[in-house]
Amino acid sequence: MNDYERQRRGALATMLAGGALALAPVEAAQAFLFGGKPKKLADDRSIHSLDGEVFVNGRPATIETRIRAGDRVVTGGDGKVVFAVGGDSFLLRRNGDLEIDGSDFFVRSLRVLSGALLSVFAKRDRLQPVGMRASTATLGIRGTGVYVEVEPRLTYVCTCYGLVSLAAAADPTDAETIETKNHDMPRYIDATPSNGSRIRPAPVINHDNEELELLEAIVGRKVPPGFGKKSYER
Fold first, then answer.
1. Which residues pair with 201 in a beta bridge?
2. Comparing C-alpha atoms, which of 141, 234, 225 is closest to residue 183?
3. Please, where are the H alpha helices in 159-226?
4. Do 112 and 98 touch, CB atoms closer than 8 A?
């Protein structure tokens, strides 16, 4: 976690303890967390914000860098980037490595090689979901908010809202369909099975409702009605 993240989360914890954000409207909370009310990105922009080392196709990224399907986005030990490709948007945290496949600004699939990725996706046809592959898991995503953390032998997946088809990479028959409204069914997918399955329940970790609201806002959408009204453990 870089200094920005430490400061943001420390200040957030202080304000929550004092009840400040609990009394603030969503726009005020987002302004505090992200430096202003989130707006839809301009058509000629891909990156909303970046901190530390961020690379696109091996070259250092700036706020003007365009990101398309076919690109590879990598963050260093102090890096973080919030960006959009077409109607989908992403927050890639430090030490992240993401490959994007598709056509121009339409995402067909993603490969998360390392790190942590929070994503929101435009609605897809049920027969043509966005594919996502991590170290030990594969996902089929249909208009959904999803958070993943990737380790060599373990993948964490939280379907924040929407519908995801989840399977173990080592055994596609070890699978589960998850439909949630508010972080209801997080999962770990292990490299080795336990009690007959590689998929097991997990807690909600390391991502915020405000971050999901930001990602939806920069592609001109809002989170689903009712999302975030129920509290959850972090």
1. 187
2. 234
3. 209-217
4. yes
Mean pLDDT of the chain: 87
- Dist CA 42 CA 218 (whole Å): 9
The secondary structure of the chain in percent helix, strand, coil, rounded to multiples of 5, reads 15, 45, 40
Please report where in the chains the tokens 């173990």 appear, as a residue.
Answer: 168
Interval 176-215: pLDDT, tens:
999 999 999 999 999 999 999 999 999 999 999 999 999 9
Which ranges of 66-156 does DSSP label H, i.e. alpha helix?
Answer: none
Amino acid at 173: T
Quickly count: other Cβ atoms within 10 Å of residue 95's Cβ.
16
Residue with token string 């490299």: 191
> Under a CB-based contact definition with an 8 Å cutoff, are residues 100 and 69 in contact?
yes
- Residue ranges of the chain assigned to CATH 2.60.120.1440: 38-217
- CATH of 38-217, picked from 3.40.50.720, 2.60.120.1440, 3.40.50.300, 3.40.50.970, is 2.60.120.1440
**Rg of the chain (C-alpha set):** 17
- pLDDT at position 233, please? 45
Backbone angle region of 212, left / alpha / beta, with phi > 0 → left and psi within -120 to 50 → alpha? alpha
Rounded to whole angstroms, the Cα distance separating 155 from 152 reads: 8
Q: Cα–Cα distance between 90 and 220 in angstroms, integer?
A: 14
The 10s digit of each residue's pLDDT in 137-171 is 999 998 899 999 999 999 999 999 999 999 999 99
The residues with which 91 forms a beta bridge, in sequence order, are 82, 118
Task: Write out the two tokens for 208.
Answer: 């915020």
